[in-house]
Specification:
Blueprint: H1 24-32, H2 45-54, H3 61-70, E1 74-75, E2 79-80, H4 83-88, E3 100-101, E4 104-105, E5 107-108, E6 117-119, E7 125-128, E8 143-147, H5 150-159, E9 177-182, H6 187-194, E10 207-211, E11 215-222, E12 226-233, H7 236-246, E13 255-258, E14 271-278, E15 284-290, E16 297-302
Antiparallel strand pairs: 1-2, 3-4, 5-6, 6-7, 7-8, 9-12, 9-13, 10-11, 11-12, 14-15, 15-16
Length: 303
Amino acid sequence: MTEISVDPSERPRASLALLDVLSEHAAAVLDRLDVRRDPSGTCLPIELARMLAGRGLPVYDPVLELEARAGGVVLGDKTQLATFRALSSRPDFGPSDALVFRGEVLLPIHGSELMEFWMDREGTIYRGWPASPPWDPEDSGFCAPVYASYITMFERYAFQREPWWGAAGGLDDGYGCSLTVHGHLIGEAMAQALAVPAFRPAWDQYARIWHGNAAHVEEASMPGYHVHTRADLRSIDDLVRALETIAPLMDRAPLDIGVPERALVQPGERETLRFRGLQPGDRPMDILVYGGPGSYRIEVHRL
């Protein structure tokens, strides 16, 4: 049985059951955002185990642990954790409704209308949907691992709620330049060149983050979903430094480059550097750099 719902201000803080596994940073962000647990949206692990078994679903210890620690939590006003919520809202959900990844049944940990997050027996969290999502009617059966555990899920959630992260779900407007290298994981080299420190609490085998005042670097290693390195930068000088770092890869690594209008070339400026790279789709492009430190301008010629 679930507990009786209480006034939101009297619900326990979400951080309380996570203090021993989360970084101080993540716990503080959850408290600052006043993220709480709704006791009516969860149950005891033993009750969840009975519910799963009664529906012919496997019982995974990490799923029970997540329920015990974060069942009834809502992240970002839309991600309703965890498995009790998912099953309670779907009384007919059974083995044929679950996602399967490489032969293993995944259990839903997301009780919102579109079940989007799932967990395996090791605690790895996947993003996927068994039916077509509203934004892409042809994309059914998608599934890919995105977090090694609920710990890095919370860590990355907290990181993306810091002031440098914009309300639209991306970095704030101060990061006017961007560079994405598709299919290659070179975050370490990029971060060293830009002198950006690692944000290790959010690291796992699927993503690594480096963040500083001048730049944000993120590696995504999620086969079937995202495999890339992206740098968001505040200055054109740092963009040029990043281009120099990846120059040896440019003949085989498709790039996306974002340059603010103020960095576009003006008539009469002198070319100082030229890079030959690939666009997504392996089409060639030239990246021309004009001027010098403090006054660089960039022009992209798509060939």
